[in-house]
Write a structure and sequence with these properties.
The protein is built from 4 helices and 10 strands, in the order E-E-H-E-E-E-E-E-E-E-E-H-H-H. By secondary structure, it is of the alpha+beta class. Helix 2 packs antiparallel against helix 3. It starts with a strand and ends in a 13-residue tail after the last helix.
Amino acid sequence: MEHLALIFISPRQLNELQEARELPAETWREETSGEALMLDTGSWMITAGSLEAKIDRWEVNQDTCKMRIASEQKKENFIPLDYGFAVSMIGQTGSKSHLASYLISLGEIYMMQDRTDIPSPEKEFNEPPVKDDMQSPEL
């Protein structure tokens, strides 16, 4: 796997775009030390100097491009680094050839599960038609 420098555009900034344009990527930093953040995609640990924690233990401030390890002390504008944020971050920084395996592995960290309430295309198109008792008899 890779060690990635966390240099990317915040997902909120991308979502707020009204038209396609190029934006500069930001270097994300730890809140108090200001050190640049790194992600190890093998262990899913984010590090900043001597600080280190699993990806799902971090909080993000998308206004300032800062992260901090989550604590009981709430801080304004910091929200949990959730799966959607992680996917956007990995999509912008990681190797495109490894993206599928990253997303599978990341799903395990965030305990994502396959949705069973959505029929697969194969099942949907290969099932025999359902007989409707209300149909008119065949002539």
